[in-house]
Amino acid sequence: MKRLPFLLFLAMICTTVLSQSCFPEGVYFTSQQQIDDFPVNYPDCNRIEGYVRIEGDDITNLRGLSQLTSIGGSLWIYRTHPSLNNLSGLENIQSIGMALRIYNTASLTNLAELANLQTLGSGIIIRDNAALVSLIGLENLTSIYDLNIRDNAALVSLKGLENILKIRSTCVIKDNGSLKSLEGLNSLEAIVQYFSLTSNSSLNSLDGLENLERVGFEFYILENDALSSIEGLKSLGSVGWWLTIHGNDALVSLQGLENLVSVGSGLSISYNTSLIS
To answer: How many angstroms separate the Cα of 142 from the Cα of each of 22, 68, 148, 161, 257?
Structure first.
């Protein structure tokens, strides 16, 4: 029994040592050497208090960041070397205090190494990632502030977002030329403000939105050339201000809106050249 207080004291010391934080103002990695040197220069730091920005065509891997468990600000990854095709090194990150922003990566194919990410204080921006095919790796997130998925030419699926129940602000899915459905958003029940589905040229259905019940402000479905069905909206009951369905040339029916009982200001349906009912 006399040894217990000492062991507890020792455990507290070890926890303190192993949980040191650094960079309250954030850190900007612009070279592979900076990333490789991080565990040498800051061996006890696993919590970065500020932001983390990773940018540079010299950066080929992120393995030097494997000791990190949390980031207090936003995580930015952009304009990286074409050989950076995964996020190996970020497997231990459990929380990001603000936003996750990934854009202009040439070879990144998925986000699998973010599988331990459980909390995100703000939103997700995934934009201009030419090789990205899925969002697998984000499965532990249940609520986010906003979602912006745009200009990802190879993205075929939103799988990875299956557990998100609510988007607290806006959702924009735009100009993803290979995206055929919204499978992956299957648990989503509400978007508090604005929802835009725009110019996704291969999107042929809204499958994946079957549980969406409410859009708090505006809902736009615009110029999705292959969209032939909106039956995936079968649970949608209310749109707070305006619902616009415009320029979806393959749309042949409005089936899917049967349960829509409230649109705050109006419903606009225009220039859907194949619409017959």
So the answer is: 28, 22, 16, 8, 26
